Amino acid sequence: MKRSALPEQPRADMTVLASADRGQRALIDPDYDVGLFTRYLIEGLAGSADLAPVGNGDGEIDSAELYAYTAALVRLGARKTFGLLQSPVLSSAETEVLKAPKAADESAKQG
Question: What domain of life does the native source organism fall in (predicted)?
Answer without folding.
Answer: Bacteria
